[in-house]
Write a structure and sequence with these properties.
heterodimer; B: 107 residues
């Protein structure tokens, strides 16, 4: 069965960066796109970007351009999302979530399987 | 950017009730509209994609409809496990935005 298991909660100071991991199992790792979505208390759910595990190409929401980097390690079947220049507004739960469409097609930009979420707290 | 607006923001209902949640897009998105359920402390769960297609494993008490700018999610007979928060999301254009959520509570 498809499983996405994320790394544990993180606390960072303003200006720092954080990296969240997402270990995928139960399906062909390079067969499906992966997205990152965050959920902040006052801002609801927010799409951050997508990575194609075949080749590693990415597309980010304009809001996060220059601050976010999404990568993958195919040998470890793990995805990573790094967010820099953190502020208190980045305090949120970060989810990795799979696109149901194969990487042989264009992504669908909706989300069928989700990780359990990683709480990132930014506080001085 | 496309704005997604849900109504109501909260709703009280009883087991067995029929409930409808509405989602409106700020511009036409054809049928690129998806619905998710989120229980407290859990990740969202996909219920309906492409406006009206039921995700595998989702009970047939859930249904979606609409196209263009106006969409609805209907639960035909509420079950105890359906009390949760529901989000719509557009997959029409970047950035792929969500509604603010509708919290379904026990009356």
């Amino acid at each position: 069965q498809v499983q996405l298991v994320q790394s544990g909660a993180e606390v960072r100071k303003p200006g720092a960066s954080v990296r969240v991991s997402c270990k995928a199992s139960g399906y062909a790792f390079t067969g499906y796109y992966m997205h990152w979505v965050r959920q902040a208390p006052r801002q609801g759910l927010e799409w951050m970007g997508i990575i194609n595990p075949t080749g590693g190409s990415t597309s980010y929401a304009q809001k996060f351009h220059g601050r976010v980097t999404m990568t993958r390690d195919t040998s470890a079947t793990t995805f990573y999302m790094e967010l820099g220049s953190l502020t208190s507004e980045d305090t949120a739960i970060y989810y990795c979530t799979r696109d149901p469409r194969s990487t042989k097609q264009l992504a669908s930009y909706y989300f069928d399987f989700w990780g359990q979420g990683t709480l990132v707290t930014v506080s001085s | 950017d496309i704005q997604m607006t849900q109504s109501p923001s909260s709703l009280s209902a009883s087991v067995g009730d029929r409930v409808t949640i509405t989602c409106r897009a700020s511009q036409s998105i054809s049928t690129y509209l998806n619905w998710y359920q989120q229980r407290p402390g859990k990740a969202p769960k996909l219920l309906v994609y492409a406006a009206s297609s039921l995700q595998s494993g989702v009970p047939s008490t859930f249904s979606g409809s609409g196209s263009g700018t106006d969409f609805t999610l209907t639960i035909s007979s509420l079950q105890p496990e359906d009390f949760a928060t529901y989000f719509c999301q557009q997959s029409y254009s970047h950035p792929y935005s969500f509604g603010q959520g509708t919290k379904l509570e026990v009356k």
